[in-house]
Every structure is written in C-alpha cells, then in structure tokens.
Amino acid sequence: MADEILSVRDVTKHFPLTRGVLFQHEVGQVKAVDGVSFELRKGETLGLVGESGCGKSTLAKLLMGAERPTSGSVYFEDRDVFSLSKAELRRLRRRMQLVMQDPYTSLNPRMTVGDIVGEPFAVHGDPEGGRGRRVRELLEIVGLDPDHVNRYPHQFSGGQRQRIGIARALALRPDVIICDEPVSALDVSVQAQVMNLLADLQREFGLSYVFIAHDLAVVRHISDRVAVMYLGKIVEIGDEEQIYDHPTHPYTQALLSAVPVPDPTKRTGEIVLEGDVPSPTDPPSGCRFRTRCWKAEEICASEEPALEVRAGRSDHPTACHFAAESARA
Amino acid sequence: MSDEEVSTGPLLAVEDLHVEFRSRGRSVQAVNGLSYTLEEGETLAILGESGSGKSVGAQAVMGILDSPPAHVTKGSVRFRGTELLGLPEKKRRDYRGAKISMIFQDALSALNPVHRVGDQIAEMLIVHRKTSRGEARKRAVELMDHVRIPSAASRVNDFPHQFSGGMRQRVMIAMALALEPDVLIADEPTTALDVTVQAQIMKLLAELQKEMRMGLILITHDLGVVADVADRIALMYAGRVVEEADVEDLYARPAHPYAEGLLASVPRIDVRDRALTPIKGAPPNLAAIPSGCPFHPRCPRARDRCSTEIPELRLFEGPSQAGEGAPGRSGARSGTPSPHRSACHYAEEVSGGR
C-alpha cells in the first residue's frame, strides 16, 4: 500500500435539485459521482475518460477538496482529506495542484505572469532564495522566457498560457497534479508540446497525475492506467494496454470503436451506439449502460454489476455481467 | 437541379478567394487566395487549426459574412459555372439553402430558441418554395424522420432546448436538407459532441450524402474525422491552402512540412507509445502574417528563400503518384487520382524524404 499516494474510497456526490423560490423543496438529485473507488500510485498517470456528464470534472473537484463528497472518503497518503482541519487542509493543498482546461479564463487578465505564477507563495510563504528567483526558474522549467515575467496573459498564445498555468501548479513542488482537460482547448500542433512538457515534468520531479480528458487518444498517450467512467461510475479500470487493446466492458468497446483514427486505411469500427447518455437525475436501474447496450439482458436491469475482476484477469476489473474481450453478444 | 442551368465545370469552384476584416483602420487578412473545386457526390475536407480561415472561407462561399467588417476583396465562387460573388442579394438568396446549404458546430445557437423545431424546418419550405403551411409541416415531420429523430411526429412541436446535443444537430441537418441542396457545407458539425454521438452524426451525413448525391464540404480540425470520411483534403494555414490531395495520398506522403508536422504531433488511439513530435511555436496572428511562406517561422526545413518568396500551390514531382497503390475512395472522381499539390518550395524533398 505504500506506493499509493491518493486513494478514493466509495465516493459519491449528489447535488440536490430544488423547486420553488421561497419554499424550496428537493425534487430530486443529480448523482454526479456515485460510488467511485480507485488508487493513484506514486509517479504514475491515471487517465480518467468518459463522455460529458459522466462526472469526471466533479470528481476532480472532490479530489482537490473543493467539494465535499456526499459520502465516502479521499485519502492522501494515509490521511482522510475531509476530516482535516482547515490549517491541515491548506498544508496538504501544497502537495496537490490543479491544471485547468481553459487557459483563457483560468488566468487573471489583470495580473502579470510573474504575479500569477508567484501567487501560491502569497498564501503559503516565500520559497528559499526569494519569490522572484523561483518564478523565473519556474518559467524556464515550462519553456517560457523568464524575461517575460512582467507581461500579461493576453500577450501569450493559448499553448503558452497553458504553460503559465502549469508553472503555477508547480510552484509549491507538489506531488500530485490533477489535470482537468489540460489540452482540449489547444490546437493539434500545440497540444503535443504541452503533452510532452507534462511527460518531461513527471519524469524530472516524480509527479503523479490524474489526467481527465474526453479525448481517448490523448489519454492513451499519456496514461499508465486508465479508468473509464459512465454516468458517475467507473465501468472499467486497468493499465493502458488492457483498456485499449483488450477492453471487456461494452461501453469501453463502443467508445474505442467510435474514435476516428488519423489513418485513411483504417476505418472507424463497427459499433455505433444508439441514443445519448441518460440523465444523471434518473439513471437506469441495474447497469446504467444497459439502455444503450447490445448485450443487455434481464439481469442487467435488476442487478447492478459490481466493478470486480472477472474472467480471471487480475488488475483489470470491469463492471459488466457479460464482460468479454469479444464485442459480440 | 432544373434543366435551365448550364452545366459547365465542377459543381462548385472557388478560385483565389480573399477575405479581409476591416475595423478602425486595422485590417486582418483571414483568407488569402483560397482555391478548391468540388464534384457531385464528393467529400472534400477543409482541414485547419483555429485562425486558418477555414470557416470564414466557407461563410464567404455561402454569402453570409457580415459586411462590414468583412470584405471579399478578390476571387470567384462558381456554382455549376455561375458566378455567385457580386450577384445581387435577391438572386443570391436563390442559391443559399436551395443549392448550397450549411450546418454549424453549435446547433443550440443556430436554432431559434423560441420557435418550435417543426416550424423552423417548415419555414425553409414556406419561404423558398411557397409551400402551404400544412404541407410544409408534413414535410418537416418527414425530414425529421429522415435524419432518424425517433418519434418525429410527436417531437415536431418541441423546442430546441428539449433536444439533446446530438438530436439538435439532426434538426439542423434536417433544416439544411429541406430544399435538397447540391452542396452541403458542414462547419465542425461534431466538435461539440461526444465521441459516440459524433460517430452517429458522421454516419448519418455519409448516408444522406450518398443518397442525395450531394457534394459535401467538411470543415474540421480533426485529422481522425477527415481520414474516416473524406475523399480529398485541402489543408489550410494562414488563410491559404498549403496542400491538396486525395486523403490516402496526403496521409501517406505529406508534401508540405505543416502536414508532415500535424501527422507527427497527433496522438493515436491505435498505436502504443508513439513519440509525439510537436510543431514549434503557434499559429500566426492574421494581422501580421509572416513574410514569404507563412509557415516558415515554425518550419524545421525553412531556408533563406522561404522568408522572402511566397510558394505557390503547385503540382510537384513526387514518387509516382498515380498507378499502383490502393485504389482511391469510391469518390466522385471514379478511380482517377486527383492531383497532389503543395505550397512548399521543397515539396519534392518533403514527400520523398519519408
């Protein structure tokens, strides 16, 4: 257990749906995250994929301690994040940082780059050798010109802004970085720059990443292990090769089949799912994927499949009653 | 589709199109000499990153750019031989929607939120075809059925917000197809959608295109989508086409360093542990496009000449392009491979050097 830095245990997050202005009453719940467990190991990248509304961004907020879970717990090393005092939580936040999707709205346009990257020191105290020196060092680490400390965000391109966000995340020498769609707002030619930077930083500083994205090719490229989410639950988790080359959950298979490959000699796979993701306010009974699944039978509606190792594949649990490598029913 | 039209040349021919945005004395060159042709039943992908001019170029073809600030300063857009640029607005309207139609990325803002979807589809027919209201409504249901919206008859009175993203995209497609256009321009039609829904919509578009023998222009930044559906590609950079070829040809033998760079920088779902080689720098600011070849500041092969001399989009001496190799897509150009052009001084070297 020693090599797990972050451990999520049966976490749920339900948002109440209310009606009425003066006399608000609850009419239902959005089950954004509904019983998620996983571990992040030291130095690894765990990819988290799923379509919009599957709960991946809510999960990011829970991991950062920015939202309290409805139930369940998040352990950082061996300490329960949500039972810490405010001061303890602040200390812990030094070690866990967030990189966000949109490099345009996540940087304050009125602050200079130096102030943005140095802001964490205003909260957590100046580093050895002084703030200015460390900021210049950080800019250099992420491949920006240290002489640009006095410029403003609008003077940088999208890719450079994302580097600024990464420099800020690195300021306090964290152990874990949660990346929430860090490259999806970037052009293809720039996206690769940022992905390579993240990989270099991981090697250099021994960082652990939770990498949240909807782009399955990006996730494959950067991840050691991958968890696939659907409607607030993890349906399959395993190492990158298990998930991409030997998926056993029908949803994973359909998702992979839908991704167009940049190679005209390979056409997109044959599984085209019907319909959309159902509403998380009223998820289907039993297995949540059954309404779109071609393998669904009676048991799928009555009994929720647990995320467990099936068919003897250790370390590759899947939540399907009919898990199999073959996609055929 | 009427007989009166003179059928000369390709279905749609865009030549040397220039679009400029002017405001308060500043001008931005969004499109700088865009040329392409489209045949019946063919899918042409216009591939480019943000700011490459791919959407503005399409809007100029549709004639829906706001002027000012946009000005089409030069060029020609011919539909079956008829020049569209310079036509009076009243005449132009006969082509828009009826001959050339367009769908957009964001269906929620393209549809009117306070009108029922059935009315919005029917409006096309009432305005353009003078169809009666009742007849148009009936046709709207048929169209919704046609784009595979489940239980269309009961959803025809719903408002756009009552549909999911994928279904809204289908409503927009139904509207665009209401007048049975010959050319459909799809501007990032699936970018806002989840990948499983994207697959549904792309499949639907391909089926409809085949059935209606439309020419399809697919504007996108996604190299995967292009590889999947297009017959030909025009790759844009800084408002110009920098490379044009059959899809197989371009992916197998890119002849412009930008195309080569893009292919090397995109992660692939079907390959393990692929090293990514990014293109350095960022796409140019259109208010200050670099001199010579606009790609030269980012190009690993750039030499002195590249910063002074604008390379023309030209045929080049490649490793035998025609002949052997896989037969082309079942596109409109039935077998004959279309020319492979590149706007690089060193296209021969780039295409041979792999």
From TrEMBL, chain A:
Keywords of this entry: ATP-binding, Nucleotide-binding, Transport
Family in the record: Belongs to the ABC transporter superfamily.
Domain ABC transporter: 6-256
Protein name per the record: Dipeptide ABC transporter ATP-binding protein
GO molecular function ontology, one term from the record: ATP binding
Gene3D superfamilies: P-loop containing nucleotide triphosphate hydrolases
Transmembrane segments: none
Originating species: Actinoallomurus oryzae
Record-linked NCBIfam families: oligo_HPY, PRK11308.1
